[in-house]
Structure formats: structure tokens, C-alpha cells
């Protein structure tokens, strides 16, 4: 048995279509309604310009009345003290050269880079613990290499001396035989 029972669902109903005449009538009604709204808006604008010329009336209430409101807002008066009307900013009003507020991450990133640069300067000057350890290690290695080079030189000289002595004794041997 199907889920909906024997009643049947919405799928089997007859479909109704809107006739072209009804569509045309709806379109005309919408156009007429828009024309009325535009005429009312023009009348409100005329009243505002007259008020501005005479300098009477509160401008705040006129500005609220001229704004187009969406949905139910046009019908209901709302007094919300937390609501701030957004004003369009002009390009000339925007300050590009003023002090720019950085986010926390950007500030931390900049501080990190500056700290790294300071550390590298101190490291190159040999003032950090790591730099001192590196320099001490390099001095030890330098001494070891100097000692190894000196030893090699002494061994080479000793070898040359033994070879020279051997050659001298060989030369004496040949002389004594002659």
C-alpha cells in the first residue's frame, strides 16, 4: 500500500494554466501600481524641495519618508535606536593616506619579521649565544686543521730528510766501491 493511503497525492491532480488574458491583466495592474508609486514619490520630492526653500519642517522625517522601504517596512513605523542608516561615501571623502588599522594577525606578522631581522643583525655581529657557540666551534676546527697541516708538513720534511739521508748513504756506498 502506498505511503499516502488510497487518497492519492498531489501528482495526479489536474493542472491549471493561466490564460494569456489573465497574464495581460496582471501585467497592466502592476504597471498602473508602479505609475502611482512614482507619482506619489514625485509629489513627495516636490514637497521636500518646497520645504527646503522655505526652511521649515524637519529634514530627518522627510528623508525617512522618501526612502523606498522593502516589504512591510513601508507600512510600519520603526524606531530602532541601534539602526544606523548607511550613507554612500564619495571617493573624495575616503582617506587613503590616513593611519590604517591593522588586524591582529597582520600586526603579529610584522612584529615577527622585525624580531627576525633584529636577531639576524645581532647574530652577524656575534652577540647571540648561538653566534658565540658557532664562532667557538669554528675556532676549534681552525686549530685542528692547522695542527693537521703542521703535522703533515713535519711528516713530509721527515720523509724528505730520510730520503736524503738514504740517498747520501747510497752515494757513499757507490763512492766506496769505486
TrEMBL record:
Residues 1-14 have a biased composition (Basic residues). InterPro entries: Casein_kinase_sb_PP28, HAP28. It holds the Pfam family PP28. Residues 161-170 have a biased composition (Low complexity). Residues 80-157 form the Casein kinase substrate phosphoprotein PP28 domain. It comes from the Eukaryota. Residues 25-38, 103-112, 147-160 have a biased composition (Basic and acidic residues). Coiled coil: none annotated. Residues 1-79, 91-112, 147-178 are annotated as: Disordered. Transmembrane segments: none annotated. PANTHER family: 28 KDA HEAT- AND ACID-STABLE PHOSPHOPROTEIN PDGF-ASSOCIATED PROTEIN. This is 28 kDa heat- and acid-stable phosphoprotein-like. It comes from Cyprinus carpio (Common carp).
Amino acid at each position: 500500500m502506498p505511503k499516502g493511503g488510497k487518497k492519492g497525492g498531489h501528482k495526479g491532480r489536474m493542472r491549471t494554466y493561466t490564460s494569456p488574458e489573465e497574464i495581460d491583466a496582471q501585467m497592466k495592474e502592476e504597471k498602473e501600481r508602479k505609475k502611482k508609486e512614482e507619482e506619489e514619490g514625485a509629489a513627495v520630492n516636490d514637497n521636500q524641495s518646497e520645504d527646503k526653500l522655505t526652511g521649515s519642517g524637519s529634514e530627518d522625517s522627510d528623508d525617512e519618508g522618501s526612502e523606498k522601504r522593502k516589504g512591510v517596512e513601508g507600512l510600519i513605523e520603526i524606531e530602532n535606536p541601534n539602526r544606523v542608516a548607511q550613507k554612500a561615501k564619495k571617493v573624495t571623502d575616503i582617506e587613503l593616506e590616513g593611519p590604517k588599522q591593522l588586524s591582529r594577525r597582520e600586526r603579529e606578522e610584522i612584529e615577527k619579521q622585525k624580531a627576525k631581522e633584529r636577531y639576524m643583525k645581532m647574530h652577524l655581529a656575534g652577540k647571540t649565544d648561538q653566534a658565540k657557540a658557532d664562532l667557538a666551534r669554528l675556532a676549534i676546527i681552525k686549530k685542528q686543521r692547522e695542527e693537521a697541516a703542521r703535522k703533515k708538513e713535519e711528516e713530509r720534511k721527515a720523509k724528505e730528510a730520510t730520503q736524503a739521508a738514504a740517498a747520501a748513504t747510497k752515494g757513499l756506498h757507490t763512492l766506496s766501491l769505486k
